[in-house]
Amino acid sequence: MQLGSSPTIPFSIRTMTATLSLQIKCDVTAEYRPKVLVVRHERSGTHFVMNSLALNLDYVSSPWINLDLELGINYHSSVAFESLVNRLSGKWIANLLKSHHEFGFYADWLSKFRNEFKVIYMVRDALPVLRSYHRFLQKTDWFEGPKIPDPSEFIRATPVGAMTRFQYQHAESITHRWCNHVQSWIQGGPKLGDGTFLPVYYDDLNEDFEKTMQKIANFLGLPMSRKPVRPDRNDKVVHPSPEPLEPMEGFTLTASDLVFVENATGSTYEMISRLNY
Fold first, then answer.
1. Given a cut of 50, is residue 201 above it in pLDDT?
2. pTM of the model
3. Which has more confidence, 24 or 237?
4. CA-CA distance, 167 to 243, in Å (whole number)?
5. Total domains present in the chain
6. What CATH number does residue 86 fall under?
7. Which of 129, 147, 221, 228 is the most buried (most CB within 10 A)?
8. What letters, b where the CB count within 10 A reaches 16 and e where it falls short, cover 85-113?
């Protein structure tokens, strides 16, 4: 891929109360390269797939375009989204877009720009997500979500704090929040049209890397000219504080906890099992 300079793309975003003038520095290529939005629930291996795309298909995983607080967007407004996307329209942007939002935030504008965007949705099992998320939240120096040491209480806790910015609907518990997120994209993503949405199971990428990367390359319409190279899964992963995270220990669930998770996630796993990709 021939990357040119990294132009700064100015644009205005209409928020609830004002119009913000922002700039995003992007790598633009003259070659065909669909813009890619990588979405998933927090702690589901986003940077694993982003690093894989960068290393094997010449996308840019750092800097990525982070659809979060720093853009100042009212994410409940499709008008605000479109003001951003319109500025990127017609350009082959190599920088990956990253989001944690449920599908409802994107339904309106993605359907309008589906000829330019491809969506990769990372699906990871609930238990490792809950384990990693529990550890992450204990270390944040802001109120991202419940800082509850007891795993039994944590999986049943009501989502509160900054984590709720990614929710399009109320969630009974943090476990049900995972269900809502996965179900929203598995049900909504295919509505974007053929060839626009690809769910990728974390375990497939981790355990059958070459085959999964070839599937992703075919989805993007890009050649895989060499044997896929596996990146460091932890490279560029977002950490909650400057201090390194401790090993994943101390997240032990009882038999009744596992029954709770199974009951909460059962219908979601049934939906995942019906995926044909």
1. yes
2. 0.86
3. 24
4. 28
5. 1
6. 3.40.50.300
7. 129
8. bebbeebbbbbbbbbbbbbbbbbebbeeb
Question: Any bridge partners for residue 119, and if so which?
Answer: 37, 197
The two structure tokens encoding residue 171: 């969630």
Domain assignment of residue 249, given as a range: 8-273
Calpha distance 148→176 (Å, rounded): 17
Among 46, 43, 99, CA closest to 75: 99
Q: What is the pLDDT of residue 237?
A: 44
Contact (Cβ atoms closer than 8 angstroms) between residue 135 and residue 248: yes
Confirm whether 244 is domain-assigned: yes
Please give the backbone phi and psi of residue 180, each rounded to the nearest 5 degrees, phi first: -60, -45
Question: Can you give the length of the chain in residues?
Answer: 277
Helix 174-188 × helix 126-139 angle, to 10° = 120
